Amino acid sequence: FVLDQVCQALACAHREGIFHRDVKPSNILLVSDEENGLGVRLIDFGVARVRRDESPGEGSEVLEQGRTLAGTPAYMSPDQAGGLGYDARSEVYSLGCVLFELLTGRPPFEAESPLEMISMHANREPPLVSSLIGAQLPGDLEEIIATCLAKDREERFQSIGQLREALAALSECDSGEDENPPERRPLPLILATAVAVIGVVFISSAWFGLSSSKPGTTGARSDVKPVHRVQMSKETADFNEQFGTRNYSLRPIGEGGTLSDAELEEVAEILAKEGSIRLDLSNSNVHGSGFHFLSKHPVSYLILSQNNLDLDCLSTLCSFKHLRILKLAQTNLNDDALKVISRIRTLEALDLDGCKGFTDRGVAYLEALPAVSSIILRSTAITDESLKTLAAIPKLCSIVVEDTGVTDEGLAKISHCRNIKMLYLRNCKNVSARGFAMICRSMPWLTALSLGGPAIGPGYLEPVAALKNLYDLNLLNCRIGPADLKAIGALPQLGVLYLSKGEFADRDLKSLYGLKNIRHIGFWECKNITSDGLVELRKHLPPNTRILSESSDKSPFNQDVVEMFADQ
What we know:
Elements: H1 2-15, E1 28-33, E2 37-42, E3 49-52, E4 61-64, H2 88-104, H3 114-123, H4 129-133, H5 141-148, H6 160-175, H7 189-199, E5 231-236, E6 248-253, H8 264-270, E7 277-280, E8 299-303, H9 311-314, E9 325-327, H10 335-341, E10 349-351, H11 360-365, E11 374-376, H12 384-390, E12 398-400, H13 408-414, E13 422-424, H14 433-442, E14 448-450, E15 472-475, H15 482-488, E16 496-500, E17 520-524, H16 531-539, E18 546-549, H17 550-553, H18 557-566
Parallel strand pairs: 7-8, 8-9, 9-10, 10-11, 11-12, 12-13, 13-14, 14-15, 15-16, 16-17, 17-18
Antiparallel strand pairs: 1-2, 3-4, 5-6
Helix pairs in contact: 1-6, 2-5, 12-13, 13-14
């Protein structure tokens, strides 16, 4: 009944002109209660905004997307990449991705970054499910999935109702098989389980999250009772330049659609036999009083971002013997919390992005962390004094101080640190061209660098030619010119280059012809760059290089990509 109830929830929403826009496994919850038995909830509605045209009649409801990408890249339709509006067929695509993962244990596409993932949805054909599981699918199931995942939305099921009917026909076909079918090879376990789920799609009447039934009505009961009220989903962690490539994390979801401290006891029971645990407790009702339930488990990666945490409970994290990565972005914590965190001696990476309560006083405590290699202090209240502290941390290799008050003098305090390989300075308004030139002269070992802001104009980037080991260069919102492009073209190891608002033309792209190791290159809002110029550039770069620009595909997709990376 799972897919049936999800289809009914989406169909009901679509009738009201609402699109979910983030259909994925972690937003599909199994719930159980004494009255109704087993049921399904589709959570996280309300992301889309709907406006209604003044003209009456069918088709008068229009979704307003805004300028940001909606959804999770692994389940995102290619419609946005083509500049198309979001409609029911976009939702069909996302549900097709969920069905694909149900059958194979993985989404249709896997990539190292959101940018790559979205591009694959737009340009690559998904593999056949049968090729991944080593068995033929029953009935028309392969064709159903392929129809859901068609690049051209005109070739998909035109509504969730059509998809539901196709699954119903498959279920009826499966139930009507001969009692003595010919012998065939057993299906792999994951496929057998998926077929069983599809086979019971139409057993019970619907109970779904966006219900149209009257209060007090009861759905069909089920004798199947989940062992735990907390549901555990496997999610793709957001790609992060500091924490490496994309990885999976476990996200527990409580009975009410979020998670409380009391429910962490049940989470601990579920995780009892897990190995190294990557746990996502972000944006929940967790304050910290339940941390002790998890202290005996091998939690190595813990996301507590966007929570209102209790300082008195934070000390429990010191008993987490395996904790290597801790993400506290956009929490309410202050400097006193960093004094506690400094006692977690196993920490290797710490994300404090957007924590306005952190100042130089708190950062000073972090010098006590012997193993930390990455610290994110973006959009905090730090000054140059914090850079002096960071310079004293021997294993620190990645520093993110974007959108802070650091100055040229502060950068001078870290310029001698050979251990610092990655430096992120976007929107640091007090860093001048002189300070940047000093960094390029003093730190030729840098492998990653970000800059951005209206103060960065033509000629600013010329010193970058000294960074012969640079692999990742992010220059969003930089008004650089031809001379800067020439300096970038002299970087022999450069693999990733993103630029926006550059003041150069097609003819200046010749400076980049020598980039033999480039993998990703993007130009956005570079008004003098044309499609012809990019076509010519492609001829001179490695064949697998991915080039993105609004000049090449004429869609709002590229601006969305810029905003996605700007949010990291």
